[in-house]
What does this fold into?
Amino acid sequence: MSIEEAKRALFKRLREFYGDNLLSVVFYGAHLKGKLDEIDVLVIIDKPTDSVKVNRVAEFIENIKEPIEDKFGYFIAFELYTKEEAENFHSSYLDVAVNYEVAYDKNNYFQNLLKEMLNPKKTMEYVKYLSTIEYVRKDE
It folds into this structure.
């Protein structure tokens, strides 16, 4: 089975599992250039299905990732965010911005988010934040 068939099945499973709570599904990474047999996917949901992130990730792995990997044989690397989490800067957005394919984007949520994240003024705020390191002496 092809990687495109696996992606279609993955998207279908995401739609069935999250329903109206699904905001965006974005494929990105080397598989889009035919360089890797691995599927990278960014999934954004509106509201948390569980208040504990590790539970949401475990739920995703059990109900979506593993069944698709078992059936199609492609490894799935994923980022799973709620709307609130997605609106914080994530370094993975830099990988996504280089090469991506939008499978689903309710009300252009991801497209608008990416524009905001790539806004030079906003980006500089993130760089300043990420590059600020506070040095604390061990004896203090």
